[in-house]
């Protein structure tokens, strides 16, 4: 087979056969297919798409480029996980993993780092002093046995083809492709040897998928390809036109997640985080038969949150992964940004809010950039809220000497209008 012929076939909008897709991925891993050829392949897929059969084959080929996590450690206990397509303030994994562990399932979560606007669960956890995400296979199996959940980074051996392809996609404008996103996510999740997966597909200004139609198309693709690969997969679509919860940043998000684990939130923004987390968990518990139906699952999850058992699992997971939990993480000093006029919040500019956080060092521009865990932003308003001139709309947390630089930009991120605006539903 000639790589150039396969690239031309995809360029011209034709479907590749299974053996042709396997040839490309195997060749990419052993050096017969060069990075520039793989970049051309990614662009051809981005422009012309792939059928579900092609996407499933690509997913399996990327999975087979690496190893599977051992299943034996879980015995008869169901293994489940959640993945989100990412967005601002998404701290759901920090709550979900210990909450599910408290409901008698195992959560072997292999997670990612933040890049660009999207925060990463690993960066958030590493805001906890001592917390280690680079556990060996034996060490992570021991944590799973003892606690029921771990959250670690992917080793070099988890879907290495995806790791390399993603690095190329990131710099060649080929991230936003439904078949490539589907195969990238599922190849890594299949490697965890799960019994069920739930996906949180985000839609809105701060998400990969900007429209509901695109989010639904990605949801269908992930569900169908997951099922075809033998992994029961359900998808929820949730709003990302405004940050999830109030906190955006690393330490500040851990504190918010812990607040939700510790007590029933009275703040509607935090209630939204709890509701989304519980819905994702409930879908998994029913799928693996630990709960009889969604009502049963929701009640059970509510009890685990309210009686402190989910929080106990969180503390046990942190300790087992080397972290020292002292009750609350330090966050840089805060400075309020005030509303410029009376009115209603019409729009929150997530791009501006996210890039401010990156500029402050709370996120990365490129792989390998270091993170300042203490910087963050706390939203004080949501879309549809009534505000009065001078009222704090958000709080910027960073070193006092840098605050003035960002205040005006952040003020502009909160658009206020005179006419009432309906609140945005969390589930569009
Ligand atoms: N997350 C992934 O792991 N891969 C993608 O392609 C997009 C989001």
From TrEMBL:
EC number: 2.4.2.4
All residue ranges annotated as the Pyrimidine nucleoside phosphorylase C-terminal domain in the record: 344-417
Protein name per UniProt: thymidine phosphorylase
Any single Pfam family the record assigns to this protein: Glycos_trans_3N
Gene Ontology MF, one: 1,4-alpha-oligoglucan phosphorylase activity
Originating organism: Stieleria neptunia
Gene Ontology BP annotations: pyrimidine nucleobase metabolic process; pyrimidine nucleoside metabolic process
Subunit comment: Homodimer.
Gene3D superfamilies xrefs: Nucleoside phosphorylase/phosphoribosyltransferase catalytic domain (3.40.1030.10), Pyrimidine nucleoside phosphorylase-like, C-terminal domain (3.90.1170.30), Transferase, Pyrimidine Nucleoside Phosphorylase, Chain C (1.20.970.10)
Class of the enzyme per the UniProt entry, highest EC level: transferase
PANTHER family for this protein: THYMIDINE PHOSPHORYLASE (PTHR10515)
Keyword Glycosyltransferase: yes
Family: Belongs to the thymidine/pyrimidine-nucleoside phosphorylase family.
NCBIfam families: PRK05820.1 (NF004490), Y_phosphoryl (TIGR02644)
Keywords: Glycosyltransferase, Transferase
InterPro entries in alphabetical order: Glycosyl_Trfase_fam3, Glycosyl_Trfase_fam3_N_dom, Glycosyl_Trfase_fam3_N_dom_sf, Nuc_phospho_transferase, PYNP-like_C_sf, PYNP_C, Pyrmidine_PPas_bac/euk, Pyrmidine_PPase_CS
GO CC annotations, alphabetized: cytosol
Catalyses which reaction(s): thymidine + phosphate = 2-deoxy-alpha-D-ribose 1-phosphate + thymine
